[in-house]
């Protein structure tokens, strides 16, 4: 039982990332009809927003500390972060330690801007082009963004720790009546799961209960009729592209303590996220979220040692096997809409 609970937690952790990225992908496809192979790059850019803010907050100046000496007896030179001078040593260090959560505020306007520029500068020219053209151009864009990040930040992963309050692990088993140290799970992975749930709920609430969201949903169902009502649906869809980019960016920001940012992390998640979207059903937001968590849990259970002993490498292909099985029996995916990607 303890192994089942632990693997379920691991699955929810993986599924959170899959669901957030797939949600943004589905928002773009559902509103604009564009297959965006650059969406993984948006996840990567979000991660490097956290890295950038951490570096900005750690900028320092050098002073001579007469109270400390080196091995020759000379006063030592020490680096003092600017935030220590501005807010005091204690408050300044707290700001530095909490750079990842603070990067949420830093990343939102950046990701909205990146999404706007991407849509207006490139994507809008491919709305009426075949999906193959869209895939090629957005995949090329993803490679360009990847190389730009590699040039600026280097090829090596950049560790970006979680706040000290969340660097340990929770004895989760005690809460469920197990013996101490039976089920130990990292705090930050739990934080990531709850953060993902909040973002997903916020996106659905925005689409369901706001006037803007209702117009967008109407436009997704019948774009031409909404346009005849005098509503600038193209402008709203552009804003939805920015929101989708922000969702992917936030997923990347909060994922940095789990997986150190590197220039190819977007590609690592790209294929998996598209499999999630296809399994959930192209254009279905609930399907994308459901498939994300489902495939994350299945992949987690497939990584158990006794299963890999029986079926070596099954954890690497389980998602694709499930995708094949679902698409053979239900070609539209779990919750796909009739007519989507069937032309």
TrEMBL record:
CDD domains: TM_PBP1_LivH_like. One of its GO terms (molecular function) is transmembrane transporter activity. It is a multi-pass membrane protein. One of its GO terms (cellular component) is plasma membrane. Keywords: Amino-acid transport, Cell membrane, Membrane, Transmembrane, Transmembrane helix, Transport. It holds the Pfam family BPD_transp_2. Coiled coil: none annotated. One of its GO terms (biological process) is amino acid transport. The keyword tRNA-binding does not apply. The chain crosses the membrane at residues 16-35, 42-61, 98-118, 190-216, 236-257, 269-298, 310-328. It is found in: Cell membrane. Belongs to the binding-protein-dependent transport system permease family. LivHM subfamily. This is High-affinity branched-chain amino acid transport system permease protein LivH. It comes from Roseisalinus antarcticus.
């Amino acid at each position: 039982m303890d192994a089942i609970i632990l693997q379920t937690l691991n699955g929810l952790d993986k599924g959170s990332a899959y669901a957030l990225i797939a949600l943004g992908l589905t928002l773009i496809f559902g509103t604009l009809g564009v297959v965006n192979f650059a969406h993984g790059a948006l996840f990567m850019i979000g991660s490097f927003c956290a890295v950038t803010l951490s570096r900005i907050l750690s900028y320092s100046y050098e002073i001579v500390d007469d109270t400390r000496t080196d091995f020759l007896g000379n006063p030592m030179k020490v680096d003092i972060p600017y935030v220590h001078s501005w807010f005091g040593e204690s408050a300044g260090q707290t700001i530095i330690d909490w750079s990842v959560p603070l990067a949420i505020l830093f990343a939102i306007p950046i990701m909205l801007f990146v999404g706007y520029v991407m849509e207006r500068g490139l994507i809008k020219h491919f709305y009426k082009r075949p999906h193959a053209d869209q895939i090629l151009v957005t995949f090329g864009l993803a490679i360009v963004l990847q190389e730009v990040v590699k040039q600026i930040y280097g090829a090596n992963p950049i560790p970006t720790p979680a706040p000290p309050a969340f660097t340990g692990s929770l004895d989760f088993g005690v809460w469920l009546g197990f013996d101490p140290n039976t089920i130990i799970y990292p705090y930050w992975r739990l934080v990531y799961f709850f953060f993902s749930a909040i973002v997903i709920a916020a996106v659905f609430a925005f689409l369901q209960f706001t006037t803007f969201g209702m117009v967008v949903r109407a436009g997704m169902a019948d774009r031409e009729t909404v346009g005849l009502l005098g509503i600038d649906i193209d402008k709203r869809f552009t804003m939805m592209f920015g929101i989708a980019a922000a969702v992917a960016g936030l997923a990347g920001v909060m994922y940095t303590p789990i997986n150190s940012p590197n220039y190819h992390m977007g590609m690592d998640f790209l294929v998996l996220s598209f499999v999630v979207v296809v399994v959930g059903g192209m254009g279905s937001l609930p399907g994308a979220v459901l498939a994300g968590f489902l495939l994350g849990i299945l992949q987690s259970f497939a990584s158990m040692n006794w299963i890999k002993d029986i079926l070596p490498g099954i954890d690497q292909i389980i998602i694709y096997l499930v995708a094949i099985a679902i698409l053979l029996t239900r070609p539209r995916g779990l919750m796909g809409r009739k007519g989507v990607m069937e032309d």
